[in-house]
Design a protein that fits this description.
mainly alpha; Zinc Finger, Delta Prime, domain 3; 4 domains
Length: 523
């Protein structure tokens, strides 16, 4: 190779400085990549999406929003921004960073929230999460600090890799082997990868371990199933990392019961049932799950499945049981608070929010998985719901669900509340004053007027977007809207009352980047 001239050298230096200033994604668009060092041999690339993915990784959050809004105005689809952000997140954090995986879990909810908004506001929930995503990626070190790399498949003796093989590698804390095995499983199909990952996830009923694979699977509708391996391997790595933590033993009880319950109730010997259930039966199973020990709750669900009741009916009972943890919660006590989560608050990583997100994840994963995992998800989901009631303290069995008679009287004292408009105004005022009890009472009263739920959801959606929510606002809004849509009319408003309470709890802590996004979209 001929030596470079001084002019060529200085030109390369100049291009390199410009790349550093504009970021790799913009550099690709400008044709400046010759000044960038070769990628590592095991770097993951995302084809046509690579420039946008790198833009997400290499651009500071406060500089990214104007660039993304400009792209939206010139034809880039919102779903393309979400897909690039998901891939940038996965490649950077690989499921091993607390804020990182919380942000990934918020991406699909944010995109679905956007579809509930007028066209001019549609980008807001997505931009909110993209700001958080890029900020955390920059804190982590950007593109140069990626944790996820391609898996080089070694020589094998042939044969089909099973979920049991993957499970053993995870229990042995062998990340390299687990990655190899999961990559081979993912070559078979996205469904095989999902079901294999679930058998590992089910080993421990811990909220993040549970929700991460569901939100990753949900993202495939946006990102594409060709990226199933990239998104689902985060869960495999999360599980391997968890095996090295002392706290990993606390949620294993449900998985240890599975072989016994599968055998006792012959759940793998015949197809799962399709029998509907009356409202009273669902309510009774929900109460059983809520009031029982974890093992008793798991067995109650196994028995219900053995009787032939439809899995989704059983899943509804689990979701209603966890909803009680929000409606009955006395709020954070001293010793479980932080700067943005004061005494009495119920947003963020509260018992109820975590439990409802987990139940929703188990229910949705049961819908998407094979028969074995459908039963396992529901049995462990019931075990976890009962476990969550006692895990962090609290006298939930004796605390009464909100709104109480006292809260209804408080609403009545506000004056006439007989119209939807009056109740919506009261709800808005209650949220803005952090009055959780009044917010619950207002929604409960609204539910009795035989009106559309949309005005209430529109109001709660506004605050789910504008407030920080301690990493959970988007997920929980989506959990509730999803459960409302799939819950019978006699039960569904309980979910919205819980969302109103959480919304009133989280108000007053604006989401970083939200005000700027509003201003830029209006400009």
């Amino acid at each position: 190779m001929a030596p470079r001239t001084r002019r060529e050298f200085l030109a390369d230096v100049g291009r390199g400085m410009l790349v550093a200033g504009v970021g790799y994604g913009a550099a690709l668009d400008l044709g400046l990549t010759s000044a960038i060092a070769d990628e590592p041999s095991d770097a993951i690339k995302f084809g046509d999406r690579e420039p946008l993915v790198r833009l997400m990784q290499d651009t500071a959050a406060d500089k990214l929003q104007p660039m993304l809004i400009e792209r939206l105005k010139t034809g880039t689809e919102l779903r393309d921004l979400v897909a690039a952000a998901a891939l940038a997140n996965a490649r950077t954090f690989a499921g091993e960073d607390y804020i990182g995986f919380h942000t990934l879990m918020a991406l699909s909810p944010a995109y679905l929230m956007s579809r509930e908004l007028p066209e001019a506001q549609r980008a807001l929930p997505v931009l909110k999460v993209l700001y958080r995503n890029s900020n955390r990626i920059q804190e982590h070190g950007g593109h140069g600090s990626e944790l996820m790399h391609s898996v080089a498949l070694g020589q094998t003796s042939g044969g089909r890799v099973s979920a049991d093989d993957l499970h053993r590698a995870v229990l042995n804390k062998d990340k390299a082997q687990a990655e190899q095995l999961f990559a081979r499983i993912a070559q078979q199909s996205p469904d095989e990868a999902f079901n294999a990952a679930l058998e590992v996830v089910q080993d421990n009923a811990e909220v993040h371990r549970v929700v991460l694979p569901y939100r990753a699977w949900d993202l495939l509708d946006i990102v594409g199933k060709d990226q199933a391996h990239t998104l689902l391997r985060q869960s495999v790595r999360y599980c391997v990392k968890a095996e090295n933590q002392k706290s990993n033993e606390y949620g294993r009880g449900g998985s240890r019961l599975l072989p016994k319950l599968f055998d006792q109730y012959k759940l793998l010997a015949k197809p799962l049932g399709t029998s509907p259930a009356e409202d009273g039966w669902i309510d009774n199973l929900s109460r059983t799950i809520f009031t029982s020990t974890p093992d008793q709750a798991a067995e109650a669900v196994a028995a219900a499945l053995a009787e032939g009741f439809a899995p989704d009916t059983v899943g509804l009972a689990i979701a209603l049981a966890t909803n009680q943890l929000i409606l009955r919660d006395k709020g954070r006590p001293e010793g479980q608070t932080s700067k943005d989560k004061p005494v009495g608050s119920v947003h963020g990583d509260s018992i109820g929010v975590h439990a409802c997100d987990s139940a929703n994840a188990w229910r949705n994963m049961a819908r998407a998985s094979n028969a074995r995992n459908t039963a396992a998800c529901l049995i462990i989901g019931a075990w976890q719901a009962a476990y969550d009631r006692t895990n962090r303290g609290g006298d939930f069995l004796n605390w009464q669900p909100w709104p109480t008679t006292e809260h209804d009287e408080k609403l009545a004292a506000k004056g006439p509340q007989s119209t939807p408009q009056a109740l919506l105004a009261t709800l808005d005022a209650a949220i803005r004053s952090n009055d959780q009890s009044l917010a619950c009472a207002a929604v409960a009263a609204y539910s009795k007027l035989d009106q559309s739920e949309r005005p209430v959801f529109d109001l709660l959606l506004k605050y789910a977007i504008s407030e920080d929510g301690a990493l959970h606002a988007e997920k929980f809004y989506r959990t509730v809207s999803d459960e409302f849509a799939s819950t019978r009319p006699s039960f569904r408003w309980r979910q919205v009352i819980g969302l109103a309470r959480v919304t009133a709890s989280e108000f007053g802590k604006p989401a970083p980047g939200h005000a700027e996004a509003v201003r830029l979209l209006q400009g």
